[in-house]
Model the fold of this input.
Amino acid sequence: MKDLVIVGTGGFAREVHQIVEDLGSWNFLGFLDDNVANHGTRVHGQPVLGGVEWLNRHPEVHVSVGIGATPAKARVVGRIHNPFATLIHPLAWVGNRVAIGEGSTLCAGVKVTTDIRIGRHVILNLDVTVGHDAVLHDYVTVAPSANISGNVEVGEGCDLGTNCTIIQGLGIGAWTIVGAGSVVVKALPPNVTAVGAPARAIKERPEGWHK
Done:
């Protein structure tokens, strides 16, 4: 079995650890956290080995970034040169014609049908559904029970809230946030926050706000 560490010690990192345990196919070494106060402590009975710089001394170890906040996740990934683990929970259902990029995590109950492209470092949380011919670009984070219909394109770094719905054939611009429970019935531009049913943009951000 290949060695694996998880970056992060918060709620999502612990959920990722549960996926690793359920898979049973990795040699889990422990967690990494840049908060020095956590070094030497234990999470789920496993050691916090140090910060991200620990990886510089262990370049062969695989990494899963267990950070749910999309901008923070992207920044951490940019510091890592180790191989990334792609984790798919055994209770996720993934069709045969689905491409999944490295470092992505699919939680229990996820359903991904056919002819779908999922980028790098994408999170599909519990019970997310993705319909045919959808494209999810790098760093997309989808919260539990969200539904992405067929032929939808979700831009890089988008954050789709719990139980939101994206109607078929729409595009969502890069680094846009869709609020929990929202229903997207029209395409959304990049760098906005949209909420409601139907969803409307309530906040605009400058390009590059996430860096």
Observations:
- Helices lie at 11-23, 70-77.
- Residues 172 and 188 are 5 Å apart (CA to CA).
- Residues 11-23 form the longest helix (13 residues).
- DSSP finds two helices and 24 strands in the chain.
